Amino acid sequence: MAIVENETGFAEADIALSEATARDYFALLKPRVMSLVVFTAFAGLFLAPQPINPVMGAIAILCIAVGAGAAGALNMWYDADIDAVMSRTARRPIPAGRVSREEALAFGIALSCFSVATLGLAVNWFAAGLLAFTIFYYAVFYTMWLKRATPQNIVIGGAAGAFPPMVGWAAVTGGISLDSVILFSITFLWTPPHFWALALFKMRDYQDVGIPMMPNVVGEKSTKIQMFVYAVLTAIAGVAPALTGLAGPVYAVFAGAMGAYFVYASIRVWRMPEGDQKMIPAKKMFGFSIFYLAAIFAGLIADHAFALVWGG
């Protein structure tokens, strides 16, 4: 706000009003990413070995959703400079000029504090602490350091997106277990092939902003090989819940089939000629990877629901 003098000689305030709408603030939350976060967090909560009061469960999921959105807003605040250059992010609220960086920062911090405090007071402080760590990991450790420092940014930073099912599990149990670590591992191992598929057909964007994504640093061939390796590990992790008793044999068959196709998709990317401008196999793998993760957690939820009904 600036104080200026008008024609009558009296001082008046020149206030720059934000043009942001509720829709712009919602976009800061990265709703597409949030939807997967909420779904995997719900899976962790639902699969936990003991029931939770429905009201407490709803509060936990709401807090996890708000916390994920807060991390997204902080990510957009810090990355506004590169978002303005990259084609897929140029229309986001900050680079488009609809929300200021200061507003996004304040919004992200406020939502972070609200989500963590509410989860701690209403549910338990272990889950709240894990949520706080998740927000910090994504907003600070990944966004402010890893993303611009190393081609392993997605590998290490992928943990941020893998914590939500552990937070959901912790909201019920007050701790972690082997099964919750397996749920974490599925998303953690899935993230590199998922995101590198995107990085392959967005190489120019990442090159323009100087982000050291794997294809830009080590080349397409090495990236494709690593995608295959991580796809195999993801497929194994996807079946692992059946080995610990968290899921049954029907889920094991389903997860095995989904994992096999995920590996097949990575092989198609591996065989894709270097410099291919259309990048169709990579685009198809990126699309399928989203479906894969949602289907795996949906399969776990369905298997557990069936076991509860059948067991009852």
TrEMBL record:
<comment type="similarity">
    <text>Belongs to the UbiA prenyltransferase family. Protoheme IX farnesyltransferase subfamily.</text>
</comment>
<feature type="transmembrane region" description="Helical">
    <location>
        <begin position="182"/>
        <end position="201"/>
    </location>
</feature>
<feature type="transmembrane region" description="Helical">
    <location>
        <begin position="33"/>
        <end position="52"/>
    </location>
</feature>
<feature type="transmembrane region" description="Helical">
    <location>
        <begin position="99"/>
        <end position="119"/>
    </location>
</feature>
<keyword id="KW-0808">Transferase</keyword>
<keyword id="KW-0350">Heme biosynthesis</keyword>
<dbReference type="GO" id="GO:0048034">
    <property type="term" value="P:heme O biosynthetic process"/>
</dbReference>
<dbReference type="GO" id="GO:0008495">
    <property type="term" value="F:protoheme IX farnesyltransferase activity"/>
</dbReference>
<dbReference type="InterPro" id="IPR030470">
    <property type="entry name" value="UbiA_prenylTrfase_CS"/>
</dbReference>
<feature type="transmembrane region" description="Helical">
    <location>
        <begin position="250"/>
        <end position="270"/>
    </location>
</feature>
<feature type="transmembrane region" description="Helical">
    <location>
        <begin position="125"/>
        <end position="142"/>
    </location>
</feature>
<feature type="transmembrane region" description="Helical">
    <location>
        <begin position="154"/>
        <end position="176"/>
    </location>
</feature>
<dbReference type="InterPro" id="IPR044878">
    <property type="entry name" value="UbiA_sf"/>
</dbReference>
<dbReference type="InterPro" id="IPR006369">
    <property type="entry name" value="Protohaem_IX_farnesylTrfase"/>
</dbReference>
<dbReference type="Pfam" id="PF01040">
    <property type="entry name" value="UbiA"/>
</dbReference>
<feature type="transmembrane region" description="Helical">
    <location>
        <begin position="227"/>
        <end position="244"/>
    </location>
</feature>
<feature type="transmembrane region" description="Helical">
    <location>
        <begin position="58"/>
        <end position="78"/>
    </location>
</feature>
<keyword id="KW-0472">Membrane</keyword>
<protein>
    <recommendedName>
        <fullName>Protoheme IX farnesyltransferase</fullName>
        <ecNumber>2.5.1.141</ecNumber>
    </recommendedName>
</protein>
<keyword id="KW-1133">Transmembrane helix</keyword>
<keyword id="KW-1003">Cell membrane</keyword>
<dbReference type="InterPro" id="IPR000537">
    <property type="entry name" value="UbiA_prenyltransferase"/>
</dbReference>
<comment type="function">
    <text>Converts heme B (protoheme IX) to heme O by substitution of the vinyl group on carbon 2 of heme B porphyrin ring with a hydroxyethyl farnesyl side group.</text>
</comment>
<keyword id="KW-0812">Transmembrane</keyword>
<comment type="pathway">
    <text>Porphyrin-containing compound metabolism; heme O biosynthesis; heme O from protoheme: step 1/1.</text>
</comment>
<feature type="transmembrane region" description="Helical">
    <location>
        <begin position="290"/>
        <end position="310"/>
    </location>
</feature>
<dbReference type="GO" id="GO:0005886">
    <property type="term" value="C:plasma membrane"/>
</dbReference>
